Amino acid sequence: MFLFLLLGHVSCLASSHFVVVSTNKNGGHETVYALDSAAKRSTPPPPTLRSKFRAVFLPTGPTPPGYLSFSALNALQDLSTQLRGVLATQRILEGLGVGRADATATSAILNFLVRDGCGMFATLVFTATAASKFAGDVKRWRLLADIMVDIGITLEILAAQVPPQFFLLLLSLGNMCKAVCGVAAGACGGTINLHWASCGSDIADIQAKFGAQHAVTASVGLMVAALTTQSLAHVPMRQLWTGYWILTVLHIWINRKCMRMMAFKGLNTVRLRLLLKHYRLESNRPLPTPQQMAQTEPLLFLPTRQTVPAIEYGVSFHHVAHKMGHEEVALRQILQQAKRPYWIFVAQPQCIMVVLQKGISPTDQAKAYFHATLLAQKIKEDKDLEDREVDVQWNHFSQQCVQAGWDLTKTELQTHGYHIEIQAAK
């Protein structure tokens, strides 16, 4: 086979009539060079408008299905935010007294300093409390970020319509909401870009192209603002709020649709729970695919019914010892008998605690949660669970996951943040 291809390549080169096509991967522009002494060589044509457009706004490599739709909708929601942001800026300046004789620059600066300081404080506090949770629930955190920026813009617009003593409070709260959005959106953006680069595209290129798309929508927003700023001052407040709420609802709806477009193949806690529920209740049917799951998984942080027994996943060993009354003999026995890179402890009142070993693989993390869920079901049924049954059921479940298109090596479950390592006492 190799010899045939080689001979074919050589025969092509030996021919007196062939051309060499050079394709620019950044935009798809092609140039053709004819290696034929009798042929008239022409000057390479200039890049087309389409190739220039691709070079600026679209990734060079292949992307998963839905990228173009996602980019278009993302640009629309960005434009919605830009337009409402301009309106908020106008109201803030009015609240600061721009145009009034009694307004001073010092007062405006102090208001901005307090506002920005509150935003920085919110950034630090939110990062400290939520930084470890973003990777395990990208879609819900990303949608929450968009809702928070909507709340922030709304508070900024309201600030100019409340009594003056509440102006700074609402202005600061609005900026704190926008700071929360900045942290969550920035943290989730990397995972989203990685998803669109999963077919072989360069993640840095995808991120740069999203930046270019954002620059265009920002420019359009500025132009619209420049054309409408004068007229907005004369629009009745009721009509202004009607237009604002239409843009806000559109913004949330578009972002929800964008989240539905992304079919992550990795499991998080929510997806794993849904798969386990389907596996337990509809064992005769195939598991949902990532595409099917993307259309049904929850996108909001809503209260859910607590499972009984409760599963505490990725807890510290100190927490386990405290829950079990520091029974040293029982704790030592469980640790020594473990044959897996995780340990499961059952405490009263009914509580299942999963302790993860340092360096545990993503697949074993999924198995640990599967084991805990299976044990919880057996406890509810007042039955015993044998190790062999765990292995048999896990093998069957994991095979179904792979057949449905899930990648267990990309598992990212929500934990309490602890891994343990057993060391010899010094």
Describe the structure.
It is a single chain. This protein is mostly helical. The chain folds into three domains: 17-57, no CATH class; 67-261, Growth Hormone, Chain: A, CATH 1.20.1250; 269-410, no CATH class. The protein has 14 helices and five strands. The chain has helices at residues 2-14, 49-57, 67-95, 105-130, 138-159, 167-196, 203-232, 237-261, 269-281, 290-294, 317-323, 328-337, 362-380, 387-404; strands spanning 19-23, 30-34, 310-313, 342-347, 351-356. Strands 3-5-4 form a three-stranded mixed β-sheet, with helices on both faces. Strands 1-2 form a two-stranded antiparallel ribbon. A hairpin with a 6-residue loop joins strand 1 and strand 2 (30-34). It is globular, with a radius of gyration of 29 Å. The N and C termini lie far apart (64 Å). Residues 288-382 form the Root UVB sensitive protein C-terminal domain. It comes from Fistulifera solaris (Oleaginous diatom). This is DUF647 domain-containing protein.
